[in-house]
Amino acid sequence: MDTGSNSLPSAPDGVKRKVCYFYDPEVGNYYYGQGHPMKPHRIRMTHALLAHYGLLQHMQVHKPFPARDRDLCRFHADDYVAFLRSITPETQQDHLRQLKRFNVGEDCPVFDGLYSFCQTYAGGSVGGAVKLNHDQCDIAVNWAGGLHHAKKCEASGFCYVNDIVLAILELLKQHERVLYVDIDIHHGDGVEEAFYTTDRVMTVSFHKFGDYFPGTGDVRDIGYGKGKYYSLNVPLDDGIDDESYHFLFKPIIGKVMEVFRPGAVVLQCGADSLSGDRLGCFNLSIRGHAECVKYMRSFNVPLLLLGGGGYTIRNVARCWCYETGVALGIEVDDKMPQHEYYEYFGPDYTLHVAPSNMENKNSRHLLEEIQSKLLENLSRLQHAPSVQFQERPPDSDLGEAEEDHDGDETWDPDSDMDVDVERELVPSKVKKEIVEPQLNGLFQDDQRRSGEHLRVSDTAVAETCMKALDISSQKADEDNVKVEQNTVNDLTK
User: Fold this and answer.
1) Do 328 and 7 meet the contact criterion of CB atoms below 8 Å apart?
2) Measured between alpha carbons, how far is 237 from 214 in angstroms, rounded to an integer?
3) What is the pLDDT of residues 233-290, one digit of tens each?
4) Domain ranges of the chain
5) What is the mean pLDDT of the chain?
6) What pLDDT was estimated at residue 466?
7) Topology of the domain comprising 19-380
8) Is 157 annotated as a binding residue?
9) 107 appears as a binding residue in the annotation
10) 105: alpha, beta or left, given left = phi > 0 and alpha = psi -120 to 50?
11) Which of 139, 273, 365, 378 sits a CA distance of 20 to 30 A from 110?
């Protein structure tokens, strides 16, 4: 029986979308530790809502093929990946120097199954990119992904492996230009840093800026070398509401789409920018947050939707369920159906929650200044860069391999999804936390801590990305290369 992977027509553009959705039923079992605000259980809660709202039957549902060592090493350093693979809670005391070197231990703790968790969420994002590259869907969704802080050689901000960078590298095999948009409340520093010196990836991040983690993302950070003006940062203050957010988002992204003309878009939908988030200080409604998804969808460009932050987990599940409906072009009811996590959503048991009456510290004058500055930067890009290819690198096996497996390795989209859901959604190790505990001092630092200025000098990051792509299609003039390298070296001193 054909379940119809094509979505229903959406109201604004009336175009059906074929949506691929990646989900591993084990993802909710991973546990960062007591009191830690990052809870993978929110992914299982999201999936339960999708199942009981009947959205799964409108999508191709895939269990991600786990990313392998060599897949992760397309961006991350070999020794860092080897460390993540080998470290366990039982052995971590024997590796204190490495823990410090790779920034693992506090915000990014060692927990049972850490490496499997990384393989799972990275596999979903790269698998989604492979599906988009092969025109097997119009929109790919991996709510377990979007961990945008991870660096080439270190963990950061609850993120260990940067699945976004890996997915963009995969998309660049097929598309000359890829746009990355980040609506998490935190700056997308890891992704920006990875592509800071290239004109093939434009990064646009809307985030809280000031005395706030990770401390990067100034409006003046615009990229370097070939990448100059290809990094856009939209620094915001507390309490921004839907109207103010869209005042910036739509004109800026509209101009980006016009000037940059990406072949594919990656949208990181961090839900910590919602009103009432445990670590956040914005005041977006779920509809306001989802309007960004709706706007990106309207351009009819291959779209990868990823998760990210979000620490009031009942609202995270609400948001990503609603945004899956937006991707499909289906308006879901506000009244929530009964399901196994129904008690999380009391006392109203509705999908939407009203924003608070907190003060919006973003004045219209400030917003106009930011908008004007960024549109001016975009006006400096006369046309989209052209890229010559030698030979297209081979596709990653992720996503394609799943079609060769039988049984539980993947979910057949033509099967009875309700049966699959009942089988896969039995809670195991995850402890329900209906009343979320107060933050301890360690994670309150997330609100206060400011990081170092973005390291423009880390050219090794950009070199890793370019080597992974094999895109050195034009013969370089050695003298020019030496001059450019000397410039970079001078900058690092």
Assistant:
1) yes
2) 15
3) 999 999 999 999 999 999 999 999 999 999 999 999 999 999 999 999 999 999 999 9
4) 19-380
5) 83
6) 55
7) Arginase; Chain A (3.40.800)
8) yes
9) yes
10) left
11) 273
Q: Are 273 and 282 in contact (CB under 8 A)?
A: yes
| pLDDT value of residue 16 | 72
Asked whether the beta carbons of 281 and 102 are under 8 A apart, the reply is: no
What is the SS3 assignment for 304? strand
d(CA 19, CA 302): 10
Catalytic residues: 149
- Asked if 288 contacts 315 with a C-beta cutoff of 8 angstroms, the reply is no
pLDDT tens-digit series, residues 318-374: 999 999 999 999 999 999 999 999 999 999 999 999 999 999 999 999 999 999 999
Residue 253 exposure: Cα atoms within 13 Å on the Cβ side: 26
Q: What is the mean pLDDT of residues 210-219?
A: 97
DSSP per residue, 128-184: HHHHHHTTS-SEEEETT---TT--SS--BTTBSS-HHHHHHHHHTTT-S-EEEEE-S
Residues 6 or more apart from 453 whose CB is under 8 A from it?
215, 216, 218
Question: Which amino acid appears at position 415 of this protein?
Answer: S
The number of angstroms, rounded, from the C-alpha of 436 to the middle of its chain's C-alpha atoms is 24
Paired tokens of 42: 């929110």
Is the confidence at residue 399, as pLDDT, over 50?
A: no
In the numeric block, the tokens 């869907």 are attached to 137
Sign of CA dihedral 359, 361, 367, 370: negative
* Pairs from 382-388 (Cβ < 8 Å, separation ≥ 24): 383/259, 384/176, 384/177, 384/259, 384/260, 384/261, 385/176, 385/177, 385/199, 385/200, 386/176, 387/176, 387/177, 387/200, 387/471, 387/473, 388/473, 388/474
* Whether 262 contacts 301, CB under 8 Å: yes
DSSP H helical ranges for 160-312 = 163-171, 189-194, 242-260, 286-297
Q: Are 177 and 200 in contact (CB under 8 A)?
A: yes
Instruction: Give the model's confidence band at 6: pLDDT under 50 very low, under 70 low, under 90 confident, else very high.
Output: very low
Residue 36, annotated as binding a ligand: no
With a cut of 60, say whether residue 453 has pLDDT above it. no
Tell me the one-letter amino acid at 298. Answer: S
| Number of neighbours of residue 162 by Cβ within 10 angstroms | 30
Cα 493 from Cα 490, distance rounded (Å): 5
Q: What is the pTM of this model?
A: 0.81
Q: What pLDDT is stored for residue 398 in this prediction?
A: 55
CA 271 distance to own-chain centroid: 10
Which candidate, 191, 184, 181, places its Cα nearest to that of 149? 191
Q: Max CA-CA distance within the chain?
A: 68
Residue 71 marked as a ligand binder: no
Distance CA 261, CA 271 (A): 27
